[in-house]
């Protein structure tokens, strides 16, 4: 009796996405280590926390494949890209990685829609929402560095930014949570 509720193509796509989440975690880990080595302990803290989040995303997909009776395929993770050259570039790269990850997630969503696998479609909606949040968070970072002076930010502004990021919450507020009292 076949107890696998996932198609072959969706199993492959989910496994691939699981590895992408692990890769994203390595990227945040590596940028965090870079930030710390530059003396930006707050930015490093923010990035390390995010590395953990990505690892959790990886775990969610792994569990989902197993719970649907599919086969998990743990593979090698590609090395993270080169370190950023400054804080502005670091935040730009973070934003770009999140946008690329959103594109990858949308592909899995589309595949589940085409195959009418509503369980996977439903599961992936969590990731769609999460990516909206993470893109918002990355955009906030870009706004903050812009206010601090972008590539020309002076040490005082970078100092404040670094201090603030240590306590910046991991989750961004989404438009769908806004009310007139609390925009
Ligand atoms: Fe950056 O988010 Fe995972 O999915």
In short:
This protein has 183 residues and is mainly α. It has helices spanning 8-37, 41-67, 87-114, 118-147, 155-166. The longest helix is centred in the N-terminal third of the chain and has 30 residues, at 8-37.
Walkthrough of the structure:
The protein is an all-alpha fold and 183 residues long. It has one domain (8-171): Ferritin, core subunit, four-helix bundle (Ferritin). It contains five helices and no strands. Helix 1 runs antiparallel to helix 2, helix 1 (8-37) runs antiparallel to helix 3 and helix 2 (41-67) runs parallel beside helix 5. The chain is globular and about 65 Å long. The mean pLDDT is 95. The structure holds hydroxy diiron-OXO moiety. Hydroxy diiron-OXO moiety binds at residues 21, 24, 54, 57, 98, 101, 127, 130-131, 134.
Shape: globular
Structural class determined from secondary elements: mainly alpha
Sheet of most strands = none
- What CATH architecture label applies? Up-down Bundle
Average pLDDT over all residues: 95
Order of helices and strands: HHHHH
- Please count the beta strands (DSSP E, at least 2 residues each): 0
So how many helices? Answer: 5
């Amino acid at each position: 009796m076949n107890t696998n509720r996932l198609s072959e193509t969706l199993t492959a796509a989910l496994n691939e996405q699981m590895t992408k989440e692990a890769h994203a975690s390595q990227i945040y880990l590596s940028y965090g280590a870079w930030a710390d080595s530059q003396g930006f302990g707050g930015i490093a803290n923010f990035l390390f926390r995010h590395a953990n989040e990505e690892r959790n995303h990886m775990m969610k997909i792994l569990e989902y494949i197993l719970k649907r009776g599919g086969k998990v395929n743990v593979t090698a993770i590609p090395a993270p890209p080169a370190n950023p050259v400054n804080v502005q570039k670091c935040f730009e790269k973070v934003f770009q990685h999140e946008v690329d990850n959103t594109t990858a997630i949308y592909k899995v969503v589309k595949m589940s829609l085409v195959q009418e696998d509503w369980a996977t479609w439903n599961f992936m909606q969590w990731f769609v929402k999460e990516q909206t949040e993470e893109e918002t968070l990355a955009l906030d970072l870009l706004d903050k560095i812009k206010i601090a002076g972008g590539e020309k930010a002076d040490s005082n502004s970078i100092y404040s930014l670094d201090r603030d990021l240590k306590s910046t919450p991991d989750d961004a507020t989404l438009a769908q949570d806004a009310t007139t009292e609390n925009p």
